[in-house]
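A common beginner's mistake is to predict each chain separately and then try to dock the pieces by hand. The better habit, illustrated here, is to supply every component at once so that their relative placement is modeled jointly.
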Amino acid sequence: MSEIKIIEVPKWGLSMEEGTLNNWLIEEGDSFKQHQELCDIETSKISNVLEAPFDGVLRRKVAQPGQTLPVGGLLGVVADASVSDAEIDAFIAQRSVAPAPAPEPSPVAATAPAAPAAPAVAAKAPAPAPAAKTSNGWQVPQALLGFSAEPVFATPHATRLAKELGIDLSRVTGNGPTGRISVADIEQTVKDHGGKVATLQPAQRADSPARSRADDSQIVATPLARRLAAKLGVNLNDCRVTGSRGRVSKVDVLEAHAAQNPVAAAPVQAAAQAPEAEVLPMNGMRKAIAARLQESKRTAPHFRLQADLDLEALLALRSEINASAPAVKLSVNDLLIKAVGLALVKVPDVNVQFDEARQAVLRFKDADVSVAVALPGGLITPIVRQANRKSLSSISQEMLDLVTKAKAGTLKPEEFQGGTFSISNLGMLGVSQFDAIINPPQGAILAIGAGEQRVVAHNGQPAVRTQMTVTLSCDHRVIDGALGALFLKELKRLVQTPSLMML
Amino acid sequence: MTDKYDVLVIGGGPGGYVAAIRAAQLGLSTALVEQQHLGGICLNWGCIPTKAMLKGAEVGHTLKHLDTFGFSADNIQFDIAQLVAHSRGVSRKLTGGIAYLLKKNAVKVIDGRGRVSAKGVVTVSSDTGEAQYQARHIILATGARPRPLPGLVADGQKVWSYFDALVPKTVPESLLVIGSGAIGVEFASLYSDLGSQVTLVEVAKQIMPVEDHDVASLVQREFAQRGIRVLTQTKVSAVQGEVGALQCRLTLSDGSEQTVHVAQVLLAAGIQPNTEDMGLEALGVEFDKGFIKTDAWSRTSVAGLYAIGDVAGAPCLAHKASHEGVICVEKLAGVDGVHPLNKSRIPGCTYARPEVASLGLTEAAARSKGHSINVGRFDYQANGKALAMGESTGFVKTIFDSETGELLGAHMVGPHVTEQIQGFGIAQALEATDAELSEVIFAHPTLSEAMHEAVLAARDRALHQ
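With all components supplied together, the output reads:
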């Protein structure tokens, strides 16, 4: 039997957890070469083309456009013509819900056994392909079953649930503090592997009728009622039977739904009381921002240091360069990127990432400066790599390209993933001073306020000077106060004596 | 400072408005500054209204030859005002269409004259005053205008430019056309068909100097047969007199002088870029023969400043401007797989009678560049459809590299060739060789069969000649 290969959702970046298939670029039956473009996949940050990892023939599109799958999720099946459709059906059934452990051969078992043995049977009966373990509404894919002897860090609830279901916790990714596995993590992992999770019922209220979980496929119902019930999540066992010829009708389903969802059933009343709100589904970028910054705020102990920088010399330098070099248009931000890059190299202990898994600090030689760029509905942080080594004009040109690409959505993953330090500038929006949340796993971020004229003491006299307030947020796990202060001091020296940047 | 845009385009012609739409499609906040009318020269005073006028000329020509098809008619009247009204109406309609497209794509249209007052800053002046706009990328698409000759400026009275020739109050009894590029040749053909006695003057050796010599010769012969007097290697040194009775002093190829008496003169001796009063010199923009100097991606020598279309140099064609606009925007937006403009793949069309369409190198240019070539030629005389239509003048000429089979050039003159040239354009873009083109099945009976035969002829395999 020829080999069956799979196309799965790739992992394009550390934070990538799922991908949405936008569209297929080839058809079933098409053969393709390695590196050929197969389909468009959108992640929380970008839309990118998936290239074929090998040559082959696409036999089946398992995922449909619009579907969101976890990393590793099955997109399509690849095999040459010698593999029958039935074998492919069996393969898919086997993968989506792993076959029963099948300890004893059972003559009645119409499962999807090793495909070649009975492909026809498998093809005809893929629907009831059983989960490895079904209990209390859970269907746990075989891939997750087992027991790990190694200690696993999990909540007591999660440990008990795993034991009940026979799930190997070492195969579950923990998203809790320091990687602790919660019940939610188990549920997510089971779902990601194509299994089913028992729907947790809200605490039963005295006035809301019980919900049946029994199989309702044998209940006689009108086609409309059955479809509506499926859509609303109503079990037909819970419905009265008032339709013709003893069938559950649309009205019955709606009644049952209303009884089970009292709040939903009274939308008019609710609308009268609740303030009107538009429901805006979060897009991938919004979700990523929410998850990452939540994680940062929860896990990284932030402390902040503030400094006022005098901009007079830097502005003079900028004007001079811009006035004399047509091909260069420096912004204050471009100069600050360069200054930050040089300061980071001078104080390398701020140019760090926290590697939690290894309990280590990664210290970088070059400063890859992530620059926050606001987009409609979100933000992204394209990176000026090796800002310490680059000329001001190349930093400026690079920033122009990166910002435009960010707006056009054409940034490549390597252009915004990584970075050793971030800056966020809200000065152009008139913000005097603000605090930023660290962009994990980086160790610090600089929040830049507006350059504004202030009356300050200058050489013992009051003077009007253009000044700017910057705020450094540091992760105290890896950067201490004095160290952060040292970085700000170096930054201040470079900004106030910008000719040092020419060295 | 009012607004900040990702992309701001100055000029709403076929280069500028297309660039703006593409930028907006890519999700960039985009504005377009236009001082007069959207659509630029192309829609308002060029490509489109001339085609409307030329359709009238074609109708006139058809009416003169009704007998070929068994018809006769008398008392045929012609009202130039009506034809002009039709032409202006078409322009108005399309200009409105551009406004709709820009609105649909959320491009902010700013009325007024744009000037780059500093890097990344455009000052727009209009009746309501001045306003400043910031933009990361500024694209200059200000186009070009008719070029005056020494001592000869289009005044709209004695000497017309194409603006005036598009809205004539009457058809001049006689017309001297100076310059035989696409504009000059089209107007010579138009006014000849409308009844003017036309003289066409060209300073170069052949009319339509950028076209293949064989093509130009055929057009010149056809013009001569229609009663158009064609003078090559001739200069106009002075125009004197009053409208309706002008004396034009010509210097002929042999150095002799001649005076021609005409009612009207049309100056069509090329165009010059609109680069004045835009703050470009102060910014350090570099120029090349008056046009803005740009690189393969339309970048000028100033940061964040781009130039596309006529203002950035020849060929001064609407489709070149549009294409350049798309390339420029896609490149600055980081779109994958953008290719620089390949000038050998820009078709050129002249809508005279006969029509001329061409692509790539002329035979002379191919030879002087040192290519070893195979040339194929097929006359419409041997094309059934052309004979049936009663328009069998013209030919198709193909030029292939004899070693690689690459299509280096294609030159067509005759009926509806402007609609057919893209067949060769597609072949060139897909890098088809003479072998693939030979294998294509062309429908019968069509004018395009002549294209196939011209390919076969280049391989000495023409079937019908």
